[in-house]
Write a structure and sequence with these properties.
Elements: H1 16-32, E1 61-65, E2 71-73, E3 76-78, H2 80-91, E4 99-103, H3 109-121, E5 127-129
């Protein structure tokens, strides 16, 4: 170790090696950056979120499950097989509608899980849950 004139250790940091390494890295990145471009050129469309293109609104599908496991698809009672058939038909539509599940709060979770599995198995991608908003407490009004 080098010592200063007082006999103690030198506390200055030599930054020359650090600058040398940084300059070498800068040169390497400057050389390799142009090589990272894609060799195949494709004209991609421009995204315009402010465009007024007609958006197709598809009404959501309603699946209600009562506490006893009875299922109602679009307010009509259905069996498990009928539900699978209806969901298979709806899954083929473009754009695909969202399946909104309303399940009784006292129902066993495995019944809801089975309904979700059936929907996914038939090709439904958008599955959501319907809940009630909590009632405001007396202090929040």
């Amino acid at each position: 170790m080098a010592a200063n004139s007082d006999g103690g250790a030198m506390s200055d940091i030599n930054v020359t090696p650090l600058v040398d390494v940084m300059l070498v890295l800068l040169i390497i990145f400057m050389i390799t950056a142009p090589l990272m471009s894609h060799p195949i050129t494709v004209t991609v469309p421009l995204a315009n979120p402010k465009s007024d293109e007609a958006k197709i609104d598809t009404p959501p599908l309603d699946l209600a499950i009562k506490e006893d496991g009875t299922m109602y698809y679009q307010d009509h009672q259905v069996s498990e097989q009928e539900l699978k058939g209806q969901l298979a038909i709806e899954a083929q539509k473009s754009p695909q509608p969202e399946l909104q599940i309303r399940a009784d709060k006292n129902i066993e979770w495995k019944v809801v899980r089975k309904a979700i599995g059936d929907a996914k198995g038939q090709g439904m991608v958008h599955v959501g849950f319907m809940t009630q908003a909590p009632l405001p407490s007396a202090g929040e009004q």
